[in-house]
Every structure is written in structure tokens, then in C-alpha cells.
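Our collaborator T.R. sent over the components below with a one-line note: 'Predict the complex.' Nothing else. No constraints on interfaces, no templates requested, no preferences about which chain binds where. So this is a plain run: every listed entity goes in together, and whatever single assembly comes back becomes the starting point for the next discussion.
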Amino acid sequence: MEENNIEVKRLKKIYHEASVEVIAVDDVSFNVKSGEVVAVMGPSGSGKTTLLSIMGCILRPTSGEVIIKGIKTHEMDEHSLPEIRNRYIGFIFQAFNLFPALTALENVEVSLNLKGIKGKRAKEEAKQLLERVGLGDRVDFLPMDLSGGQKQRVSIARALANRPSIILADEPTGNLDSKTGHSVIELLRDLSVKEKSSVIIVTHDNRIMDMSDRVLYLEDGRLKNGANSKKR
Amino acid sequence: MVSIARKNLFHDKIRFIITLIGVTFSVVLIFAQVGIYLGFMQNASIVIDNTDVDIWITSKNTPNFDWAQAFPETKINLARETKGVLHAEKFILAWGVMKRKEGGTEQVEIIGYNPNSGIGGPWNMKEGRASDVKGGKHIIMDESAEKKMGEFHIGDEREVMNQKVKVIGITKGIKSFTTAPFIFTSYDTAKGLASYIGQDSTVFILVKTDPAENIHEIVQRLNERLKGVDVYTSRQFSNRTRWYWTVETGMGMGFLMTAFMGFAIGIVIVGQTIYTSTIEHLREYGTLKAIGANNLFIYKIIFEQAIVNAVIGYIVGFVITQFLIKGYEKTGLAMIIPNYLIVSVFFLTLLMCISASFISIRKATKIDPAIVFKV
Ligand SMILES: Nc1ncnc2c1ncn2[C@@H]1O[C@H](COP(=O)(O)OP(=O)(O)OP(=O)(O)O)[C@@H](O)[C@H]1O
Ligand SMILES: [Mg+2]
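Returned assembly:
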């Protein structure tokens, strides 16, 4: 019996934009176990990013529950949330969001620093993480001197700092050509198996479907196929 | 710890240099304004501060050392009889004119002291002795007077108030605030030269007191006894003179305003550069928050930027100020940078840079981490 790293219950998010109500996420419930890779798909505007932001404790839901490792994050106050993100969640972004003035190594180091790992130990761990994503020979490169795929690998290494239970990726291959994108997803898959973390990937890429344990389809904020579409 | 603050600063070198120029400019301007002001003020009370007495008695409402009026010299007897007074001495400051070497005249401040006690006499003798003013119309001038008076040497004859006098001593670094050169001479000669003071008058009475007695009580007693004069401790009279030139003439305000402008310019430049840098790095701050940084972490980055700017800008400014002091001395004027100023300008610079970064703090901590998902 594998435990749930994250549980989402009856999640709802309503945006109020210029007196218009937009229901971005509508009554969504599902769980993700450790070691599981879940793809979230759906048309543009269907609420994928909104859902991911709420799961990552970046955005607060209008109603519903987000339980991370048994912690009811929807009941916590605003200034406790950074700590939850820090401990349990690793983010990977379509635009990489690396720090341009920092080398690959330092980009990973910052994340370790935030998690209380400092000095020499942080440097060594950052180096190991970069080696794991295949960038052992690029540690001192600035982001601008790396290719798109390499940048995304650095951001994966950064997301892996301190072994988060949950990795949330919003279109991680959106800025990459299909071959590079493929290897990035393979890497993520690999890591989720080894680290027993839950990986949730928002994507438009149909091929990611084949590499994931499950696919969630969103349409107008609602899950189309229930919580379990495809089981491998 | 990786210092995102420093990495970002050094990454954008042009902006960093612009910020440093701003900070440095402020530091130099503040140092120069306060230093020049203190230099002037040192001259303003230089004779008071270098005369070894405890109390100065002046005519009523004398505003400063240079503009003192005469009063009856018989009052010295009352002073001598007052309890707590060990020693009292007559002392003159009178305005006069001196012939220049190349023709024409210059205003001078004639100082007459008792050469037997030496009280009120010149210090910092470069040539000759203060006691040599005895036995004739002998004067001592400061080497800085050569600019106005032309070259002079020991033994030279000059004319003060149409009377022949002989230079018997030269001092170093004794300059008046009014820029009129000081002419030190004996009390009697001074009275002869500035005969308008009147035979029975003096300009100051200088008093040495019994250190066992409370000086303020002695001042009180002298006030009651002598009447029609003002009695100050040396410190009070020194401060009164400085205060006059600082406040009554508005000169202090001028320096203060310019120094304040330096401070304001610094805030604006540092504020601008840190702010634009913050705006450009907003996504990074958002990312930091998304990956678990709290607001304190963000504060630290922005404050560290401010502090690095302040410290480096201050050091560069301080070094430039040292050269400025040397250059300024060549013009014969003094720029005084005491230790307390070195320390306070440093903290002022910190204050300047930190307050300049406050708007940026607001901007960076208000950033919605949801920005990270925007492409
Ligand atoms: N901050 C916001 N304020 C108001 N409405 C918003 C906001 N963010 C998203 N929305 C709306 O919520 C809905 C879902 O947006 P979301 O970004 O989650 O979609 P998405 O599935 O990620 O789309 P895409 O595939 O284009 O990235 C959209 O209708 C969008 O216009
Ligand atoms: Mg999206």
C-alpha cells in the first residue's frame, strides 16, 4: 500500500476579473502516490496552471482541500506556506526561471541554501545533483551559455534539492525541441522512480502521455475522465 | 551561502558603477562641505581655543571674537579681587590697516598681549619668540599673510596704521576666519597702533581661575561684580563665536544645504538603480518565493545590495576625499575631517542606501509567486 504524497479534494478556484467570474478549477479531486508520474492535459485555458499553482501552495483555492504529506495546507496561514513549498515541493517551469547571474552550480546551491544546507556541503550536493542530470561538465556555466535542454536540466537539479516528495512541472518541454523534451521527461521519470517522489507534469505533448502512469484531462476546470484515466 | 545580491550587482556592471558613482559623489560632497565648514570654524575661534585661560570678559553683547568693542580697563582690578580668580590679564583685538609691500593697504587684526606672561600670545612659532615683542614696536605675523602682504622676513620694517613696526617673529597656521591677517604685538604697542580704542580701555580681560572652585560660580561672581560686561567661559565664548558665523551669517545653512543635497542626490541615484534592478529581477524574486524563500530572505538580498553599494561607495569616496584635503591645503585653506565625522558619514551612507531601497523592498515582497508560471 503506497502512501499518497498529495491529496486534492473538491478543489475550486474562482477568479474575479473585472466583475466577471471565471471558474478556473471546478470540483477537482484526485490523489498522487509516491513514485507516480501524472500528466495533466487539456486545452488552453482549461485550468492546468491554476491547478498546479494551488497544488504547489502558490495560489490559495476558493474552496476545497490540498493535503500534502498529511498536512492540511488549505488551513494554514499565508506566511507558513513558503515553508511547505520549501520542504515538500520542487518546481520546474516552462521558462526555466534560472538566476541569470548565477552559474549552474550556484543555481542549485541557492535552493539547497534555502533548505538549510550551506557551505561546502551545499556545493558538493549541488555538484552531485548536476551530475545526476548529466551536467557534471557544465557546473560553472552561466545560464546564457547553456542550451535550452541544459537549462531545463539545471532547473530539474534545482527542483531535486533536498529530495522533495512532490515535483510540479508546468510544460517543462514547452520551450524545447521534441528530442530534447523527450530526454528531459525520461530523466524526470527516472528520478521519480528512484526517489519515490510524485511527479505531476502539465503538458500539451501527447507523447508524455505514454511515459506517465496516469493522465488527467481538464476541460473548463473539470476533470473529464475521473481521477484515473489510464493505468499502465 | 550563495550571495544572490552580490552576484546580481557584479553581473550588471554598468548599473553597479552608476550606483557607486552616485554614492561616491554624495560621500565626497558631504565630507567636503562639513570638512570645509569645520576648517572655517576652527579659524573662527582659533585664538580663543589656543589661549590658556578659563574665562573671557568682553563688552556687552560682543557677538564674536573678531567684532569685540572696548570697555574700561579699570575693571581688571575688580576682576582680580573676585574670589576664585588667580590671574587676570588685559588683551586687545583691534582692526587696523597695514601697508602692502607692493603698495596699497590691507586690513589686519591687531592682537595685543602681555609679553611677560605670554597669555594670549602666538603659539606655533616658526621663527623668533613670542616674548620678543617687548622693547619696541615689534610684531609677529603668520606666514600665510604673505599672500596678502607680500614676502616678509625677520627684521623687515613695515607700516601699520602709519607707524613703523618691525617683524621679529613668524608663526605657522594662525589664520583668522575673516581672512584679515593677525598681527601679534605687545599690549602697549597694540594700544599705540589702534589708538582709537582709547587710553583707558581694553577689549578683553582674560582670567585664569582656581581649579578648586566651580567655574560657573566664578562667572556669576564676575558678572555681579564687574557689571556692564559679558563673562564667558572659554568654551562658551568659542561656541558663541562659531555660532555667530554659522547661524547669524547663514553660512552654516549654506554648507548644511549643500551637504544635504549630496545626501538627497545619493538617495535618488541609489534608489533609482536599486529599483530598476528590482523590477528587472522581479521574476527571480518570484521564483525564490516559489521555491520556498520567505520575505526575510528577500529583504536580506535587497539590503545586502544596499550595504555593498554603501560600503564600496563610501571607501572610494573616502579615498577621493583624502586627495581633496591635500589639494585644498595647497590653497591655504583647511578641510578638517575629524574621526567622528568619518564614522558618522559612514553610517549616513548606510542610511542613505538602505532608505533608498525601501520602495524596492515593497515591490519585491509584494510580488505574486504565480509570476513563475508566466512565460
Ligand atoms: N490571475 C488570473 N486572474 C483572472 N483569471 C485568470 C487568472 N489566471 C488564469 N485565469 C483564467 O483562468 C482560466 C484557467 O487559466 P490557466 O492559466 O489555469 O489555464 P491553462 O490550462 O494553464 O492554460 P494554458 O494551456 O494556456 O497555459 C483561464 O480562463 C484564465 O483566463
Ligand atoms: Mg498554463
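Summary for T.R.: Chain B has a mean pLDDT of 93.
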